[in-house]
Amino acid sequence: MKLFEDKFGRKFPYLRLSVTDVCNFRCEYCLPNGYQKSSSCFLSTSEIINLLNAFSELGTEKVRLTGGEPTVRKDLTIISKAISTNTNIKTIALTSNGYNLYQKAEEFFDSGINALNVSVDSLNPEKFKKITGQDKLEHILKGIEQARKAGFKKVKINTVLLKDINDNELPEILNWIKNEDLSIRFIELMRTGDNVEYFKKHHLSSEIIKSELESLGFIPSLRKQDAGPAQEFEHAEYKGKIGIIAPYSKDFCKTCNRLRVTSKGDLRLCLFGGEGYSLRPLLQNENQIEELKNKILELLHFKHETHYLQQGYTGLTQNLASLGG
Questions:
Q1: pLDDT digits (tens, 9 = 90+) for 56-86
Q2: Residue 94, SS3?
Q3: Which end of the chain has fewer CB atoms < 10 Å from its terminal CB, N or C?
Q4: Any residues with CB less than 8 A from the CB of 9 and at least 6 apart, and which?
Q5: Is residue 218, in this structure, part of any structural domain at all?
Q6: Whole-angstrom Cα distance, residue 208 to residue 147?
Q7: What's 131's DSSP letter?
């Protein structure tokens, strides 16, 4: 199927779908004061299926279920099972903080989820607790092992790179992936509407990690069409890989291959876009699919060439939990 594209020639096989903006962690860089309850009426399973059928007919093959923390939704596996049986989406990925992964990894896998990202911002228990507000590192690491036993072959670890906090942990991470087929991805801290002072204090360019990897003999991996924004690096002597997500790097947006939909049905053309376009009125009936597809194609013309993060622009994104990062 020919993929739909924007006016800059970028194609979009990948959709990031937030299923909730609720999160039960208190990460310093995102929700240091915890989740602030708002009026919540999140997309239903039927609305999600109508949405994904439209996107898949336009050529999207991968959806990432995100949040907030998506696993706080008690019907998450009902949603993922419905996606796997009622749409043509090939990859159903889940991004989670891993708080209930140990108990539910098998349930997640059996429901059709076939790719997994888990946030681990430090391998030091005290640092982990400081960053996330939760003393759960050991439990989450056990959950990752449980996920691999349950059948997840694609397990990626997300680590937000924080100056003077976790920027010295590469040796421990390399030791972890020496004999483990994991992909650890360093994500540069991004400025949002709520974290300006924290960003100024703790932002660090990921170039420092890239330079260290290259000095150790790591080389760039080939990038797949539906891959996320990470540039992965591999080494013949390591089972795992290291990825780098560098949103402030030159030409980062040239390889953009993903769109976003919020938990309430707004299409966001960019994580840091200044506009949200409600698709929800067109998600109420499966007979609306042609109108929905046309609306998505129409809105795609408004996607900008870049996110303007370098100029300090954060758009509608007050914190990453609101749209899943």
A1: 999 999 999 999 999 999 999 999 999 999 9
A2: strand
A3: N
A4: none
A5: yes
A6: 31
A7: H
**Pair 195, 157: CB distance under 8 Å:** no
CATH classification of the domain holding 91: 3.20.20.70
Q: What crossing angle do the helices spanning 45-57 and 76-86 adopt, rounded to 10°?
A: 40
2 domain-assigned? no
Residue 8 counted as domain residue: no
Element (H, E) at 15: strand 14-18
Domain count, the chain: 1
- Domain range for 247: 14-322
pLDDT one-digit tens code per residue, 119-175: 999 999 999 999 999 999 999 999 999 999 999 998 999 999 999 999 999 999 999
The answer to whether 70 touches 24, Cβ cutoff 8 Å, is: no
**Both tokens assigned to 277:** 């376009």
3-state secondary structure of 110: helix
User: Whole-angstrom Cα distance, residue 243 to residue 159?
Assistant: 10
Rounded to 5 degrees, what are φ and ψ at 196? -55, -50
> Is residue 318 helix, strand or coil?
coil
Amino acid 140: pLDDT: 98
3-state helix, strand, coil in the chain (%, to 5): 35, 15, 50
Give the Cα separation of 220 and 175 in Å (integer).
19
